[in-house]
Amino acid sequence: MHDTLLKIDRSKISPEEWKTRCDLAALYRLLAHFRMTDLIDTHISARVPGEEGHFLINCYGVLFHEMRASDLIKIDHEGNVVDPWRGPDSVNRAGFNIHSAIHAARPDIDCVVHTHTSAGIAVSAQEQGLLPISQHALKFYRRLGYHTYEGISLNPDERARLVADLGPHMAMILRNHGLLATGGSIAEAFNQIYFLERACQAQVQALAGGQALRFPTEAVCELTAQQSDDEIDQQLHQLAWNSALRLIANDPVDYRS
Predict the structure, then answer these.
(1) CA pair distance 52, 251, nearest whole angstrom
(2) CA dihedral for 70, 95, 48, 189, sign (positive or negative)
(3) What is the pLDDT along the chain (257 residues), one digit of tens a residue?
(4) CA separation (Å) from 135 to 1, 110, 195, 233, 240?
(5) Long-range contact list for 46-49, CB < 8 A, 24+ apart?
(6) Backbone angles phi and psi of 62, in degrees to 5
(7) Residues near 22 by Cβ (< 8 Å), separated by ≥ 6?
(8) What sequence ranges are listed for the domain Class II aldolase/adducin N-terminal (predicted)?
């Protein structure tokens, strides 16, 4: 387990920010638990409650399975470090290019998750995108954006196109790249990325079977998507989040430290 080089100043952190730090660290660890990591690449970001234009993101180089609340770094819309006890090199600023676009354009979104999983990349490279062939996939029926690959996301001009391609949705497939999921809370973002990832896994395996695929009717597809929307409205994702936290509750080093 790593050790933080610079200790954070807890006296300058509000209880609300600390709660967000703990939840965000938990989400990093849960992505590791479900094997959605890519070494030190990909990111999850969350808004800092009560601080306009401030966000939390991982300390660059800390692996997801070892993330702690104290490892997360406060940054602004441009990815500049705000925490006075951190150096400017502790954040991969280029990695925040995607996140900053979404956060700036969508005040309803508090958390953004970006992954490079094998299944997610595979579906992102398939011309037809996510197929409506599983209950998990139907959660995103007509509720999923697509963004054409433009190279490593270093160009600030790409932000406008990312936002336009996401549209009103909470999730998006980044062509030839990976997955992006968001939420009005960290728990909701976890729900979105978990089911999008599982839908991609199911599609890859279904296509590998070499048999004809069966598609539900459009009416059933839309009904299932609406039922999934209702589950979010009923806060069932929060119940799932509370249960998932038990998966990392006994880690050798507490994510809340």
Answers:
(1) 33
(2) negative
(3) 465 445 677 888 999 999 999 999 999 999 999 999 999 999 999 999 999 999 999 998 999 999 999 999 999 988 888 887 776 677 776 678 899 999 999 999 999 999 999 999 999 999 999 999 999 999 999 999 999 999 998 899 999 999 999 999 999 999 999 999 999 999 999 999 999 999 999 999 999 999 999 999 999 999 999 999 999 999 999 999 999 999 999 999 999 99
(4) 38, 26, 9, 18, 17
(5) 46/20, 46/110, 46/111, 46/112, 46/186, 47/20, 47/103, 47/110, 47/111, 48/17, 48/20, 48/74, 49/14, 49/16, 49/17, 49/19, 49/20
(6) -85, 125
(7) 69, 255, 256
(8) 22-204
In contact, 103 and 56? CB cutoff 8 Å: no
Report the DSSP beta bridge partners of residue 171.
Answer: 181
Q: Tokens in use for 7?
A: 């200790």
Tokens of 237: 């994702």
For residues 251 and 85, what is the distance between their CA atoms, to the nearest angstrom? 27
> What is d(CA 73, CA 184) in angstroms, rounded to the nearest whole number?
20
Residues in the chain: 257
Angle at 19 between CA 15 and CA 25, to 5 degrees: 140
The pTM of the full predicted model, rounded to 2 decimals, is: 0.94
How far apart are the C-alpha atoms of 126 and 112, rounded to whole Å?
Answer: 23
